[in-house]
Amino acid sequence: SDLAALENYCQTVEKGHSNAPDVTKAGLFEALLYILASPFAHQYQIARRTRWPRDERGPRFLYLYGGGSNGKTTLLNYAYRLLTGYDIGALTNDQFTKSRIQNSAATESIFPLLFDDVTIPRSGYLPNLLKNYWGPSWESSHPVMQIVVTSNSARLDDWARARTKLINVSVHYTGTAEERDLITEVTSSRNSIFKWFSYQYLQLWNEHWRDVTDDELFVARLAMADLYKFARREPPGFFCRDTPLEQRYDQGREEW
What is the pTM of this model? Predict the structure, then answer.
């Protein structure tokens, strides 16, 4: 099933080397849930501003970090495939620019921007853009897309850390033929999860949006739980069903 495929992807952690495989699986599942919900980030921001008009913060960007050969690139490519059904390569660090983000935002698309292996500058035009992306210049009548990045570094300035949801991808793959065959098999299969997830998300959103919280995935968790209920399938233990990953685990303890 589509749900089983998501679980199988997270279970590939067992083929690598991880100090905390259960935490890492939970991180991968949380990252996929975030990206599945990312087209609705603008809706989430509308709800935030409605409830807290003077709070200029918005939904946090997703920041996936960890050492090399830990599958971050595969994760982004797989996420794009779940969203579109096609193999779309993630954007690169060279494309992680103010002009690229501004030009994309000008289209008013809600399709997320996924950047792989980036470095966030400490100063300049790009940091200023990211600081204010959901800030004073944001308008409810002009949809913007959410941003996801991966990096080898966990070091972030305070302003960036306050605006990002951090997930530590704490696993290392050695690149054996067995590992590559398994990951290719898991990530290449057709999967309609986004169709079902987005439908259920929108149904629940109409009911729950006034109860918006600081958890960007508060409705996404409900929607995913419903999909498991409809499928009569027990949710895996690594699905953070009721609380965000960062509240359930101390990821800092699992860093290499």
Answer: 0.95
Tokens 């399938």 belong to 233
pLDDT in tens, 98-133: 999 999 999 999 999 999 999 998 888 899 999 999
DSSP 217: T
DSSP letters, 29-54, are HHHHHHHHHGGGHHHHHHHHHHH-TT
Tokens 């620019």 correspond to 97
Phi-psi region of 67 (alpha: psi -120 to 50; beta: other; left: phi over 0): beta
Contacts of residue 148, Cβ cutoff 8 Å, sequence gap at least 6: 34, 35, 38, 61, 62, 64, 76, 79, 112, 113, 114, 115
- Which residues of the chain are under the pLDDT cut of 70? 252-256
Phi and psi dihedrals of 61, rounded to 5?
-70, 155
